[in-house]
Design brief:
It is a single chain. The protein has 192 residues and is an alpha/beta fold. It has helices at 14-28, 64-72, 74-78, 96-113, 134-147, 162-180, and strands spanning 3-9, 32-37, 50-58, 61-62, 82-88, 119-124, 126-127, 157-158. It has a single domain, classed as Rossmann fold. It has six helices and eight strands. The strands form two sheets. Strands 1, 2, 3, 4, 5 and 6 form a six-stranded mixed beta sheet that branches. Strands 7-8 form a two-stranded antiparallel ribbon. A hairpin with a 2-residue loop joins strand 3 (50-58) and strand 4. The protein starts with a strand and ends in a 12-residue tail after the last helix.
Length: 192
């Protein structure tokens, strides 16, 4: 099968959890997968047949590490199957405003990096009040008051739809397999 890199940057850990699930689904399909936190290392993409990049949105932007990673490997990424996933609270807001805001973040990232991934997904992130300092907690309460009124300001709330994450990972796996002409050893298996 194929060697796939899942590289990500995370704030409070939700993007890491999604990257791990994407990696597990791809492994269940028979691929060799490395899931790498860009805060810990900056991997070379040359040994891989495909690359998946994941990023969270903080203060309206993707992390610097993800932007640098993609910009520095733009040519290599253009020559292989690639995918991008984004986590944001805007994606948790299913109103037209939320959908448009989340799509705007993706568009701005792709414009800034001049990258054109083959597959793109947007997932709801998480509110981690337990990990925020006083000021960030206040700011986050202000931000989500109107768009996510069901958020519990005294606890943590997860908005990630794990079925969507697995569907995305299976779509990426199928795309890579089709593009590279390989057959999955186990197709569309649900990962727990």
């Amino acid at each position: 099968m194929s060697a796939i890199l899942v590289a990500y940057a995370t704030g409070e850990g939700q993007t890491a959890a999604v990257a791990d699930r994407v990696g597990a689904v791809l492994e269940a399909r028979g691929h060799t997968v490395d899931v790498v936190d860009l805060a810990e290392e900056t991997p070379d993409v040359d040994p891989y047949d495909a690359v998946v990049v994941g990023s969270s949105i903080h203060y309206g932007r993707h992390g610097k590490r993800v932007r640098r990673f993609v910009r520095g490997r733009r040519e290599a990424l253009a020559a292989m199957p690639t995918a991008f996933f984004q986590l944001s609270l805007a994606s948790a807001d299913t109103s037209n405003d939320g959908v448009a805001e989340a799509a705007g973040y993706v568009e701005a990232f792709l414009d800034a990096t001049d990258w054109h991934p083959d597959r793109i997904a947007q997932f709801g992130g998480a509110l981690r009040y337990s990990q925020y300092g006083f000021l960030k907690r206040l700011l986050m309460r202000q931000i989500v008051r109107d768009s996510l009124p069901e958020a519990d300001p005294s606890g943590d709330t997860e908005y990630t739809d794990w079925d969507e994450v697995e569907a995305f990972a299976n779509d990426v796996g199928a795309f890579v397999e089709g593009r590279l002409g390989v057959t999955p050893s186990v197709a569309d298996e649900r990962v727990e």
